[in-house]
């Protein structure tokens, strides 16, 4: 099932957002919880995926830190074309930039990083998101990042959620190692996001 079969949150929707700079989610810098997490990773050769990567400040951070096997995928070609230009020296080397639907992507990764991707999807897709994430993790692989722990008044995206809901999504083939209020969120998100880590069974 593709994401666009259930919702109008399709490539055209995201292209328009990038074309019109309607990108309220964009922090403009790597988010501190993710940079802190990246800082403690020792093996720079692990395969890393960032789905719904947007402007991918985490990718620049990873590349600067010496990580050598990073893949990003985003459904918006407007975004990915810009990204290829911005990250040009690394594209096709340490970095693969893919344009496409996460739900169609295949591969195996040691680490998948989540930030404002789940909240951008139709909530009906959350079960599929969890299944797909688990399928994309190599045995022992980790899905790590940030999830909103709040509801939103406006119709989404972003779509909110809470810890109970997220825990229920990841109830088989994985261990939830951590899902707790993030201590180093950026100010506007402080208290409203969870730092989580899910590890796929070996
Ligand atoms: C709210 S933005 C977040 C971008 C980035 N993670 C950040 O934090 O700045 C959601 C991103 O997911 C992308 N996206 C939405 N649905 C997607 C899908 N099915 N497959 C791949 N990317 C998708 C959008 O194009 C957009 O770049």
From TrEMBL:
Keyword annotations from UniProtKB, A to Z: Methyltransferase, Phosphoprotein, S-adenosyl-L-methionine, Transferase
**KW Methyltransferase (keyword) present:** yes
Task: Work out whether the entry's keyword set contains Cell membrane.
Answer: no
Q: Where are the transmembrane segments?
A: none
Q: Which Gene3D superfamilies match?
A: Vaccinia Virus protein VP39
List, in alphabetical order, the GO biological process terms annotated in this UniProt record.
methylation
* Molecular function terms, GO-annotated: S-adenosylmethionine-dependent methyltransferase activity
What is this protein called in UniProt? Thiopurine S-methyltransferase (TPMT)
């Amino acid at each position: 099932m593709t994401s666009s079969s259930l919702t109008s949150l399709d490539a055209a929707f995201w292209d328009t957002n990038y074309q019109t700079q309607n990108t309220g989610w964009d922090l403009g810098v790597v988010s501190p919880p993710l940079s802190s997490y990246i800082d403690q990773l020792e093996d720079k050769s692990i395969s890393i995926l960032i789905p719904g990567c947007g402007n991918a400040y985490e990718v620049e951070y990873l590349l600067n830190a010496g990580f050598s096997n990073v893949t990003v995928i985003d459904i918006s070609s407007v975004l990915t074309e810009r990204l290829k230009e911005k990250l040009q020296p690394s594209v096709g080397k340490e970095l693969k930039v893919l344009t496409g639907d996460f739900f169609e992507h295949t591969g195996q990764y040691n680490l998948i990083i989540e930030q404002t991707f789940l909240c951008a999807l139709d909530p009906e897709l959350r079960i599929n998101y969890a299944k797909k994430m688990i399928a994309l993790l190599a045995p022992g692989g980790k899905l790590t990042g940030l999830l909103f722990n709040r509801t939103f008044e406006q119709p989404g995206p972003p779509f909110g959620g809470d810890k109970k809901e997220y825990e229920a999504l990841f109830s088989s083939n994985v261990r939830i190692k951590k899902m707790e209020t993030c201590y180093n969120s950026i100010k506007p998100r402080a208290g409203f996001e969870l730092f989580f880590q899910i590890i796929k069974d070996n």
